[in-house]
């Protein structure tokens, strides 16, 4: 039995447990790291498609994918992006022969044990083996802590699947430092950010709530003088939601799209921040 794992799309939050658990079951874990595809999508989706294609060609029996929204559905905000709402459905449009999908929670807690038991029984059909594997790996169900962040004056907001990627953070930090600016990434756990969102805008999807919550949290920090709202591509629902939330806070902000030139917007953001510091 061979199960394919994919990186990205919040894999930092759930993959360590599932990899260890599958291996404890005696299942062969297959991972792929091909270069991004050349399809006209944002880079995270290109990387996902390249991995899935490689795993499909490798002949895996199952594909493990995260349920990014925890079963919540919405037609607003990120719900208009098929990659955020349902990865399996979106992938089936491009890979009709997609291996059967094992959909698992994108976050870890003791509540994951039930789904882990179901997946284990499906794969090995041996309750005793499933129980032993769970006993050996349940210590890994503790969610990972937020990534460390510089304590800068520019709050960086993006979809959670971007913020969880160290390479994305390095790219943003380098761009800001070129203008003498330092980043401040959200450093609260996901559930705390979602609580912050409830104080600013009514949104449905967990990823949207994290996004809006990050804006509210960073916007209320005295250290943060301006916001960099980063999107992976110009998908209208996401930038619109970010602007709507940022406008309610009154701090300077600029929308930045990955792959585009940030020189002008960052220079303008810095000037506006400095003007605010001077009080006029």
Overview of this structure, please?
This is DUF2229 domain-containing protein. The chain contains twelve helices and eight strands. It is of the alpha/beta class. The chain has two domains: 2-141, Rossmann fold (3-Layer(aba) Sandwich); 154-278, Rossmann fold. The strands form two sheets. A four-stranded parallel β-sheet has the order 2-1-3-4, with helices on both faces. Strands 6-5-7-8 form a four-stranded parallel β-sheet, with helices on both faces. Helix 1 packs across helix 6 (127-137). It is elongated, with a radius of gyration of 20 Å. The N and C termini lie far apart (66 Å). The mean pLDDT is 92.
Which geometry do the CA atoms define?
elongated
Major pleated sheet: 4 strands, parallel
Q: How many domains comprise the coordinates?
A: 2
Q: Span between N and C termini?
A: 66 Å
Residues in β-strands, percent: 5-15%
CATH architectural grouping of the largest domain = 3-Layer(aba) Sandwich
Please tally the helical runs, counting DSSP H or I stretches of 4 or more residues.
12
Number of strands: 8
Unreliable segments of 5+ consecutive residues: none
Do you know the CATH topology of the largest domain? Rossmann fold
Instruction: Give the helix level as a range of percent.
Output: 40-55%
Protein name: DUF2229 domain-containing protein
Summarize the model shown.
The protein is an alpha/beta fold and 280 residues long. It has twelve helices and eight strands.
List the helices and strands and how they pair.
Elements: E1 2-5, H1 11-24, E2 28-31, H2 43-57, E3 62-67, H3 82-85, H4 87-92, E4 101-105, H5 112-124, H6 127-137, E5 154-157, H7 160-163, H8 166-177, E6 183-184, H9 190-197, H10 206-219, E7 226-231, H11 237-247, E8 253-257, H12 263-278
Parallel strand pairs: 1-2, 1-3, 3-4, 5-6, 5-7, 7-8
Helix pairs in contact: 1-6, 5-6, 9-10, 10-11
């Amino acid at each position: 039995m061979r199960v394919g794992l994919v990186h990205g799309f919040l894999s930092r939050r759930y993959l360590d447990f599932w990899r260890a658990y599958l291996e404890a079951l005696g299942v062969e874990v297959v991972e792929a790291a091909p270069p991004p595809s050349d399809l006209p999508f944002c880079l995270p989706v290109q990387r996902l498609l390249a991995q899935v294609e490689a795993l499909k060609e490798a002949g895996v029996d199952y594909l493990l994918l995260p349920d990014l929204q925890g079963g919540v559905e919405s037609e607003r905000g990120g719900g208009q992006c098929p990659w955020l709402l349902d990865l399996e459905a979106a992938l089936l449009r491009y890979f009709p022969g997609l291996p059967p999908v094992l959909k698992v929670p994108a976050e870890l807690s003791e509540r994951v044990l039930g789904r882990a038991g179901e997946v284990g029984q499906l794969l090995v059909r041996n309750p005793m083996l499933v129980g032993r594997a769970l006993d050996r790996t349940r210590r890994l169900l503790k969610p990972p802590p937020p990534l460390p962040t510089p304590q800068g004056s520019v709050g960086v907001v993006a979809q959670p699947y971007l913020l969880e990627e160290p390479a994305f953070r390095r790219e943003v930090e380098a761009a800001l430092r070129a203008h003498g600016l330092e980043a401040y990434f959200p450093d609260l756990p996901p559930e705390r950010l979602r609580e912050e969102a409830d104080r600013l805008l009514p949104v449905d999807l967990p990823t949207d709530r994290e996004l809006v919550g990050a804006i509210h949290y960073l916007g209320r920090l005295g250290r943060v003088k301006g916001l960099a709202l980063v999107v992976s591509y110009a998908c209208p629902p996401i930038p619109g939601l970010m602007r709507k939330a940022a406008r309610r806070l009154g701090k300077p902000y600029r929308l930045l799209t990955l792959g585009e030139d940030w020189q002008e917007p960052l220079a303008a953001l810095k000037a506006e921040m400095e003007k605010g510091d001077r009080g006029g």
